[in-house]
Amino acid sequence: MLLATDVSEQRNLEKQVQSREEDHARQMAAMRRLLAGGPQVFVAFRRRGRQRITRCLEIVGPSVRNLHSAEIDELFRHVHTIQGRGEGARHARPGSREREARGRAR
To answer: What is the pLDDT of residues 89-101, one digit of tens each?
Structure first.
């Protein structure tokens, strides 16, 4: 007699937990680096993040239109910089990292 247990769901959950822990550790390390630089570094960090988001909104504009490839490239550069530096953490929608990870997995 053979008894088998499907542990794939458990492994998926363990991977998600590990990924979130790694994300949290990266975010905390970035915050420690930011705060170690003093208040002027933090103020500059916030200003740059706002500038990047403002520029993205300018590119997209108030009405629906086709974007040029150069505009799309610029949007991607800003978004990746914001993600990498954590500048948009306050502006990101809840669950966006999870949705992005699911999109990459497909």
So the answer is: 444 444 545 545 5
